[in-house]
## 1
Amino acid sequence: MLENHFAPWSIYIWVKFMLQNRNILLGLGILIVGCGGSKTSLNVDNNLSSANHTVEQKNAPSKLTIHKAAETGVSTETIPIYTYKIKHAWPHDKQAFTQGLIYQDGILWESTGQYGSSSLRKVELKTGRVLQKISVPEEYFAEGMTLFRGKVFQLTWQSQRGFIYDPTTFQKLGEFVYNNEGWGLTHDGESLIMSDGTNQIRYLDPTTFQTTRKVSIFERGTPVMRLNELEFIRGEIYANIWETNRIVRIDPKSGKILAWIDLTGLLGDKERTGAEDVLNGIAYDEKGQRLFVTGKLWPKLFEIELVKK
């Protein structure tokens, strides 16, 4: 009996309480739901914002990287590669350790190296016959050479000393000094241009022989080391890479690599005796637009035509 009377009464009290306190309960519900909902919503928004920010950070290029890339010559641009076609082959002195080579007025001019046998010489193209020669003192290892403003300039390897000659008599006119090793030498009509075995090309004032500027050579951020014999050809610098079969073509202003030349197999196996050294020596006939190359102790000198791969 008590249970039957108590149940309706309890329901009545509960309903009355709810009606009287509906505003309080409503506010409390909103607060509970709102707190939970807001926190959830805030977390989601923050997570999305954080995720988006992370994605943007990963996808966005780094200014530091771009700046560094620009400094080191990083580029995704494809560098052309050339091979060759042999047009002519002429005899070359097998005792000539070729360090520098130019073509002027129908004659090859050659600087040869090694202690005790370094020289400056004029050579007949078709026969390889030495027409004129002067020996370099035994304590010097001769390197690159060029003919500029009516004088012949010749480098030495580690002596930090160069020689100046009269191109007709080969009489020594003077000497000059520099603070690095001497490897290759050419000119652009205004400055002497030399390599020192690193990835740098130096421009020298032809009167004071002071370095006026330097250009560093990179391939996709990696220094191109051991730049050796040089030749300035139609606004570009061609450089042998020591101990390789490659020549690199360089923009002299920016140092950008314009192309590679692969001369693998130029001196055939049947033409080798085993005494030959590496590819070295680039000369250009500006009037005839002929490109000549040879190597240290090679029995032949070649006129080649470049063929793009």
## 2
Amino acid sequence: MDITMFCQRIAELAPILPKKLQVKDSARVITQGTAFGDLHQDCEIGADQILGQFLYEFFLEFENVRYLEIEGLSGFSRNQGKWAVYVDPLDGSLNFKTARESGSCGLPYTVCVTILEVKTPLASKFEHIVGAVVIDLRNEDIWVAYKEADEFHTFFNGKPAKTRPETKVGIGKMIVFGEMYYPSNRERLCRMFPEEKGWLRNPGSAAYEMASVANGMAVAFICDQQKLHELGAGYALVRGAGGVAVGFFSGTYFTGDESYVFNSQRPVILAANKWIARDLWQRLAR
């Protein structure tokens, strides 16, 4: 099985995964969140663990998966296979919780999968990323990226994805996503756009926000401490759609030599193109 087929098999889970969340079992309540941004009453039915356990069993069936790590759960490793798979089973847990409470579809909550080619397990880099899948669990929108001949190719709902063509940021005419969870990032984002009316937004699922840059809904995503279990997928999706990744503080483009550690964080700007990235970084540096 090649990486294209593997990503497609993951994407085929889109209509199955939401059904796994339709569980009414008070015994499965989690009382304390386990990830960086989890709720203290995490998803009331333990959605992270329910989806995580299902995905664990799904990936266990693939002999090419050598390493698996799922946020909040233990993974597995074995002596065969060529891929390392990293999963955030429910990115946007607050959105999921409030959607259940309100009885509506709510803001986005996603499954996020990043696939790396196994080189040296303790020294993985962004250049080792070979595939990514993000699934919006509300409506089954699917973003897929895979690498062929050292180039990413990104698809949104089965069609080639493309970033936006604008070369100058104007939040009155385009959407910029910024991570509002971290106070330092909120403050910086507000200073970037003084007196400007417009669409600086944060739907609450970083995987969804980064994926939205890839298919042109947003022009950029900005965060000063983004978790890598989402950033790896976002990086692949945006690169495959023609966009760029830029260091938040350095303003330099990602080369692929940056280290990839599942439970670490990295400051980043994901942008539709190099001109948008440069505009945003200059605003940050002011």
## 3
Amino acid sequence: MTAVEFLFDFGSPNAYLAHQVIPHIEKRTGARFEYTPVLLGGIFKATGNRPPMQAFAEVPSKMAYERLEMERFIKRHAVAFAFNPFFPVNTLSLMRMAVAAKAEGNLPRYMEAVFRGMWIEPKKMDDPEVAKAALAASGLDPALYERGQAHEIKAKLAANTEAAVARGVFGIPSFFVGAELFFGKDRLRDVEEAIVAAG
């Protein structure tokens, strides 16, 4: 089976929405997505890209259309979603914890807890105490926060981010089917078609 990879950052609402659809693609295709934590802020800095709210701040009709497309996606896929009133949230510590959770074999549970705290029951997840409380409420060890501060974890997140940029990534969510890059939740159909074509 061709390698399929999902590069994500919790700060992207579109990464959350894509995450909700990926299980259906896996079920239909038999593929398994490898989740890779990266730092969106680092990608923006390295590529000169900017968040849509900044890039299109002077094009109100563009932002209105983006919101409409998001609403259509949410309705189409029946996804629970609530915009985080604390957006933008600094996700550095959250993404470091994602690297630690993946190393410990606990990334899926961790992701569900953080995505819930970001985009279902929104909280100020860049507050360490709020993040720890969200982990504890989901049955996870709050000490993961401290483990995420280890030098090797910080280095791994930086390496993931640098590698993503080197492969052409400029934003999140991004996907690779083999070596082919796809960007955005609206490319999930293309991702699925590429998986099927790769056999």
## 4
Amino acid sequence: MAACFAAGFSPNNDWLITPMILSPLELRFFARSYALEYGLNSFQVGVSTTETAPQSFIDISGYVTNVPDSWTEYTYDLSAYFNQAVYIGIRCSSIDAMALLIDDLIIEPNGAVDDPAAPEPGSCLTGNYPNPFTSATTISYRLAEPGKALLEIFNTRGQKVRSLVNETGVKGDHSAFWDGLDAQGKPTAAGVYICRLQAGKRVSSRKMILLR
């Protein structure tokens, strides 16, 4: 496992960066905050198509704050980078916490599994259509079991734009509609947004592009 120790007076800026990877489709890993009495940790996931310098990474996570003190799985859709060579970076940016732990990091295709003996997929975002979109999009997600589902939209600075779903759902496929408005009912600017689903201890994120 990888461990990143937090700073005490200002957020640290430590990166875990992969070698160059061709045509990634999905990133998965488990993370947890170590020693809860010291506070919870934060991280961002970014992708670079050019180099490993931190400023070259584009955030795809919406800035994950308050990582729980129990192992939680995070998944990120990378299909927008299919047929490209990229670097993937995880940035620890915690303050007044002990350590962020990351384990079982896997980068692999996210295609359908045809093996009937394979385990049933966990709760996850399954896409949004259309994407890119000009005014509205429908976000699809799956719950592997009944439970609380939290579906939120973030901008690339990690600021929450709107909460779309915050309720207990039944097992199965679901969808939510986003009309491109923020929590105050105002139109959001054109750009990249992150849709994030939290269901139990699993978190799934996807990138969406709003055109105006």
